[in-house]
């Protein structure tokens, strides 16, 4: 749940909310409505966002193992879905806990870094053309977080050293 909304709800346990709190609550509810709308839009158009990126990826990495390309596509399908849920919840930790804690290790094991980063760029281009500027502004920070984690991916053994 959105932590700002949750805080307001807990604050109202022993008293009515002040006018300022009600104003903040209204803005938070409106923002939640915007996130719900963006989530639904992404959910309904997932294929139209991903497919052109996948098509271009297969051309860009023509000599690559198709199974590796498929693995990278599945990663970004998961990232898009979890990023949308994190956006809906307004909770970046959700994305980190669900996928970003383990994905960098897989990227390193399968040597997918270049493919994953190319796919991110392609998906971002598609998101820019498919989503409204407001919807893009809501989801983009979560996609950028995934990109940053993958960009700095190091094998788990190197992290401990």
E-strand count: 0
H and E order: HHHHHHHHH
Helix content: over 70%
Question: What would you call the structural class?
Answer: mainly alpha
CATH superfamily heading: Phycocyanins
Average pLDDT, to the nearest integer?
89
Overall outline: elongated
Q: The CATH topology is what?
A: Globin-like
First-last Cα distance: 36 Å
Looking at how many chains there are and whether they match, the oligomeric state comes to: single chain
State the name of the first-level CATH class. Mainly Alpha
What proportion strand?
A: under 5%
Based on the coordinates given, report the CATH architecture: Orthogonal Bundle
Tally of separate domains? 1
Radius of gyration: 19 Å
Task: Give the count of helical stretches.
Answer: 9
Describe the protein's architecture and organization.
By secondary structure, the protein is mostly helical. The chain is 82% helix and 0% strand. The protein is built from nine helices and no strands. Helix 4 crosses helix 7, helix 4 (66-89) packs across helix 8 and helix 5 (92-100) packs across helix 8. The longest helix is centred in the first third of the chain and has 26 residues, at 19-44. The protein is elongated and about 65 Å long. The model is unreliable at 155-161 (pLDDT under 50).
């Amino acid at each position: 749940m959105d932590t700002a909304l949750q805080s307001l709800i807990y604050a109202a346990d022993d008293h009515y909310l002040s006018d300022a709190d009600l104003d903040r609550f209204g803005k938070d509810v409106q923002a939640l409505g915007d996130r719900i709308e963006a989530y639904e839009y992404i959910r309904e158009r997932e294929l139209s966002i991903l497919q052109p990126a996948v098509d271009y990826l297969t051309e860009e990495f023509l000599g690559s193992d198709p199974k590796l390309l498929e693995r990278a596509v599945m990663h970004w399908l998961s990232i898009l879905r979890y990023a949308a849920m994190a956006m809906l919840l307004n909770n970046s930790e959700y994305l980190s806990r669900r996928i970003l804690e383990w994905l960098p290790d897989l990227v390193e094991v399968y040597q997918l870094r270049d493919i994953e980063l190319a796919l991110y760029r392609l998906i971002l281009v598609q998101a820019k053309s498919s989503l409204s500027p407001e919807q893009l502004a809501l989801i983009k920070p979560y996609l950028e977080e995934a990109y940053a984690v993958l960009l700095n991916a190091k094998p788990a053994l190197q992290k401990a050293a």
